[in-house]
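User: Can you recover a sequence for this backbone? Please restate the input before giving your answer.

Assistant: Of course. Working from this structure:
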């Protein structure tokens, strides 16, 4: 029988996943942990590039923004963890190495899924569910099996404060195109974005704002080459909080299965998410304001601009 009760937990650290969308998927679990252990100091380990994402979230007391990809980074993280006596560590990650880091950091209780032969490193190892779940539900299931109530089934995320200067010259209403993705098959063709933008601009005075990283600037150039209406290219010019400000003020955000799309959805913005090679059942947006258009063949070439325009028309009643 486990005798580790709520009042034993004064310090709690969570190992987050590595990607933007996956970090947003654990926000309901983080909120549930804060509710279950209200007096505990709750910290979350995230990659440095996503520190800004979780700043100001009411359920977190500390963000440990340290990477752990190299041996040096792992040693640095281990040294940091050893500076505090942690009562409980929870792994929202399947990695055996991260479980070992928790053990080496002398964290008293270490909870997570029994994956990758790491059961011996955990004090409570939970079997993964037999059936497939959405990634968000996957982590909520872990907490449920640990006896922690999980009332939220969607993102628990507050908009970060931002003094947004790149948007000063953008006129409303505007629509955001986010064409990038970390996997090429998930990218809707740039010519399709341009055709959709042209058709939308014929009906309404929309400006088109293109967002993305500096590595995706070539996608913005391709869209601009075929789109004759007003375009503002913000690729490589925004922080995460600035990107959030763009999304919050947009009429629509049109994007594929990518982390920034989930950021827009978590903010409650009006998202149109284009899915094909990945399943929205497993990792789709989890907000009622988000609309998924799913090409079941998996080939986004078959998801034409006409199909997307028709879906927007049905939402807006503009035709």
């Amino acid at each position: 029988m486990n005798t580790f009760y709520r009042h034993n937990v004064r310090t709690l650290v969570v190992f987050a996943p590595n990607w933007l969308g996956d970090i947003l998927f654990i926000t309901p679990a983080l909120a549930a942990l804060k509710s279950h252990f209200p007096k505990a100091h709750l910290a979350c380990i995230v990659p440095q590039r996503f520190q800004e994402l979780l700043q100001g979230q009411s359920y977190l007391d500390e963000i440990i923004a340290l990477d752990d990809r190299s041996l040096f980074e792992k040693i640095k993280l281990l040294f940091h963890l050893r500076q505090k006596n942690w009562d409980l560590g929870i792994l929202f990650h399947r990695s055996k190495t991260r479980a070992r880091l928790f053990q080496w950091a002398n964290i008293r209780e270490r909870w997570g899924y029994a994956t990758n032969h790491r059961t011996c490193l955990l004090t409570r190892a939970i079997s993964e569910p037999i059936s497939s779940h959405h990634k968000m539900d996957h982590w909520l299931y872990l907490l449920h099996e640990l006896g922690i109530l999980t009332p939220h089934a969607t993102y628990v995320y507050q908009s970060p404060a931002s003094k947004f200067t790149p948007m000063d010259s953008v006129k409303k209403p505007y629509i955001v195109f986010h064409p990038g993705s970390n996997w090429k098959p998930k990218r809707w063709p740039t010519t399709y974005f341009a055709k959709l933008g042209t058709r939308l601009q014929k009906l309404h005075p929309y400006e088109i704002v293109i967002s993305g990283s500096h590595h995706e600037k070539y996608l913005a150039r391709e869209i601009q080459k075929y789109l004759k209406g007003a375009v503002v290219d913000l690729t490589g010019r925004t922080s995460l909080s600035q990107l959030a400000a763009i999304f919050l003020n947009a009429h629509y955000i049109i994007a594929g299965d990518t982390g920034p799309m989930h950021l827009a959805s978590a903010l409650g913005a009006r998202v149109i998410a284009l899915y094909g090679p990945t399943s929205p059942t497993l990792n789709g947006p989890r907000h009622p304001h988000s609309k998924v258009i799913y090409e079941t063949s998996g080939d986004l070439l078959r998801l034409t601009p006409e199909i997307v325009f028709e879906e927007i028309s049905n939402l807006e009643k503009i035709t």
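That completes the design. The first strand starts at residue 11 and ends at 15.
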